[in-house]
Amino acid sequence: MADLILHHYDTSPFSEKIRKVFAHKQIAWRAVEQPTIMPEPQLLPLTGGYRRIPVLQIGADIYCDTQIIARTVERLHPEPTLFPDASEGICHVISLWADRMLFFATTPILFALLGDNVPRAFIEDRTKMMPGRANFADLPKLAPYAKEQCRGFAQWLDRQLADERPYLLGRHFSLADASCYHPIWFLRTFPPAATIFDEFPRLIAWAERILAMGHGQRSELAAADALRIAREASSATKEAADPNDPNGLQPGDRVTVTPDDYGCDPVAGTLVTSSVHEVALRRSDPEVGEVVVHFPRVGFRVDRA
Questions:
Q1: Cα–Cα distance between 56 and 64 in angstroms, integer?
Q2: pLDDT per residue as tens digits for the range 144-191
Q3: pTM summary value
Q4: Which residue of 59, 70, 232, 262 shows the fewest CB atoms closer than 10 Å?
């Protein structure tokens, strides 16, 4: 089996979600450090324009978004499962809530505390990722409302642990834990915000338990070596059509795939396979040759090019 290569940066909360998945499964993975802002010259040849972190690379197959990364890791390394006690459906529902509501309640709080210490280049980069929304520099103004939301969400999670269960869904770690942990981690690793959840002792104990899991068997890899691996590999993805695709997509169609919330940069290619939860495009780049880029269907828009 080809190495799991995670393109990430250490302070990325969404990368922390996947690092906890690796920890749970105790699998070996290679870490490629990528910039926190554009340009990402040693990532874009793989993704074709997708600019969000993390990205999972397995040879010449490139997986964008934590949703499909988690599904892929579960498929390749099914034990111990991310979905104990038939919890796959609720895990994905909780994961989407954590990514889109819980996480975005934490960001104004953090950036209000950082104040003028946030680099101008970072503000400009994140503003470009949110077309049609307010300037990212104005995010701290939302902090008072975000604190209210974050406190309410934290109480929900604390109540979920009220029967002294070790994890959100019971006796076993699940994708729900990885998904809800990363926004909590995002605030607690910044000293001025470290005490924000102290009102909820069960939540703190749960977060400490997950922190202690570590990150699995990590080793470093240079970005240039990751590009070489893609260039020398061939995709393992087989062509397949979804007979129930609601828009009649077929392998060979020219399509673009675009996130529907932020970082809305389309990736263009030729459809290789589609299913209810995945769409994969073949594309080529001078630096890596032919690769297949995989996306989730939920949270992304697929258009014929």
A1: 7
A2: 999 999 999 999 999 999 999 999 999 999 999 999 999 999 999 888
A3: 0.94
A4: 232
